[in-house]
Amino acid sequence: MGFKDPGYLERKSAATDARKAALEKFRAKTAANDPAAADRQASRQAVSMARDARAAARKAAKAAREIEVAQEAARVRELAEQAERDAAAQAKRESAERATREIAEQADRKAARDARYAARKARKK
After folding, report:
1. Angle, alpha carbons 48-54-60 (nearest 5°)
2. Could you tell me the CA-to-CA distances from 81 to 13, 77, 91, 99 in Å, in that order?
């Protein structure tokens, strides 16, 4: 008959099989016989765990900073409210003192006017 060219599917499956075989050969060679590979894998795991620990520490520090910022904002807000209450109380006291002074001044003016009136009546007699 002659030489028959393999089809696309045959070539694809042959390439897949070859890749699988090469991968298995590599895994068998590195995993079983090489203690340095195990050491490298262990060091990679240690580095990965350290990286995860640092990320967790950064996340905890960030959360702590956010809590401190929120507490400071609450403290500032409370101080502002207290200052506002103090200012309102001071304004109320000043208003009351002003009203008391005004009433006292009016009473003094009335007393002076009454005294002048009484003096004028006394002169006429």
Report:
1. 140
2. 77, 6, 15, 27
Q: What is the pLDDT of residue 59?
A: 97
Structure tokens at 98: 């002003």
DSSP 8-state class, residue 3: -
The single-letter DSSP state of residue 34 is -
Report the half-sphere exposure of 94 (CA within 13 A, side-chain side): 6
- The pTM assigned to this predicted structure is 0.47
Beta-carbon neighbour count of residue 30 at 10 Å? 14
pLDDT in tens, 21-35: 999 888 777 666 677
Task: Indicate the average pLDDT of the chain.
Answer: 91
Any residues with CB less than 8 A from the CB of 31 and at least 6 apart, and which? 37
